[in-house]
Amino acid sequence: MEIAQPRTAEARKKIAEGCTKALKLEIPVLVDDMQDTVAKAYAAWPDRLYVLAADGTVAYGSARGPWGFKVDELVAALEKTLGE
Hints:
By secondary structure, the chain is mainly α. The protein has helices at residues 9-22, 37-42, 71-83, and strands at residues 50-52, 58-61. It is built from three helices and two strands.
């Protein structure tokens, strides 16, 4: 299914809500602003996985995905971060 590039924050939010529902996600889903501030700050394109600590610092950042994803590293970072 193709989704048109949203032109407003509200449209972007509705697309994210539709994807969340379709994928049956039970985790919080955050939507970047229309200037892609977060994507630019974290160099998240094409795909990257991050674990953020409660204080907002980056506890883990993966290499570019999907080939750079190391699930064991991600799980270890999640366990360490959640255990703190």
